[in-house]
Amino acid sequence: MKKHMKWIKWFLLLLLVSSIVYWLNKSEILQYTTPEQLRDFIASYKVLAPVVYILLFTFVPLTLFPDSVLAISGGMCFGLFWGFVYTMIGAVCGGTLAFYLSRGIGRKIVTTFSKKEADKLSAVINERGFVIVLMLRLIPLFPFDVISYGAGFSNIKYRDYILATIVGIIPGVLVFTNIGTQVSKIGSFEFYISISMLVLLVVCGNLFKDKLKVSMKS
After folding, report:
1. Where are the chain's structural domains?
2. pTM
3. I need a surface site. Which of 139, 148, 158, 194 has the fewest CB within 10 A?
4. What is the pLDDT of residue 82?
5. Which bin fits 156, alpha (ψ -120 to 50), beta or left (φ > 0)?
6. What's the CA gap between 87 and 31, in Å, rounded?
7. pLDDT surpasses 70 at 159
8. Straight-line distance from the first to the last Cα atom of the chain, in angstroms, rounded to the nearest whole number
9. What distance in Å separates the CA atoms of residue 56 and residue 206, rounded to the nearest whole number?
10. Left (φ > 0), alpha (ψ -120 to 50) or beta: where does 7 sit?
11. Cα-atom radius of gyration of the chain, to the nearest Å?
């Protein structure tokens, strides 16, 4: 009986995910490819805008839409503080969804979303789960969702995965949200500071990338 209930649970989840993917592709949401367009779309929901933004971040793993673009639109729409808060919540929800999808539904289905890159990451994460996920999260522009799917394929505990995710995404979320906040002030001191923070994030990310390569070899 328990086994049947488990299969029913995963079938319903798969049905829900399939419906969401279908809706995302049939709706006009995926046509909003710039931060400005996303900002206007999110802001159109007025008081519900934060909820819509968090939901977009939650379901973005099903589309592999660039999280950085969405984070910039969050800064443009909500400002630095609330943009940061909503983005963190949405990223954690999205990371959790991708993690449990890959862990529960199976590799064959999920790799259609992750382009099979996640399968390669899972072997690496198996070795040093928390540290590897943390280092990957600290690398800017590394596909957020691929890391989530790869972690789900591995044997890392969710607790370790989500803690590494929360800590690791803080610098990136802060930088991209701040860019969105300052983008309307091009030429100002604050704008150049936000760009400098992005450059610093990329440089530090490359250092972590080199460390990760060394760690993978050892």
Report:
1. 2-217
2. 0.79
3. 158
4. 97
5. beta
6. 21
7. yes
8. 46
9. 28
10. alpha
11. 18
- The answer to whether the Cα torsion of 115, 120, 126, 128 is positive or negative is negative
Structure tokens at 78: 């909500």
Residue in this structure with the two tokens 């800590």, named with its chain if needed: 167
Structural contact between residues 174 and 84, judged by C-beta atoms closer than 8 angstroms:
yes
The structure tokens listed for 202 are: 């990329």
From residue 70, alpha-carbon distances to 100, 112, 173, 191 in Å are 22, 22, 10, 19
For residues 194 and 90, give the distance between their C-alpha atoms in angstroms, rounded to a whole number.
Answer: 22
Contact 171, 138 (CB under 8 A): yes
Q: In this predicted model, what pLDDT tens digit does every residue of 88-119 receive, in sequence order?
A: 999 999 999 889 888 776 555 555 544 455 55
Burial class (CB in 10 A: 0-12, 13-18, 19+), 218: exposed
Rounded-to-integer distance, Cα 34 and Cα 17, Å:
25
Which two tokens mark 149? 């799917």
Give the number of other Cβ atoms within 10 Å of residue 124's Cβ. 17
Q: What is the pLDDT of residues 8-22, one digit of tens each?
A: 655 565 666 666 655
Listed residue (198, 129, 200) closest to 165, CA to CA: 129
4 pLDDT exceeds 60?
no
CA 190/CA 185 separation, integer angstroms: 8
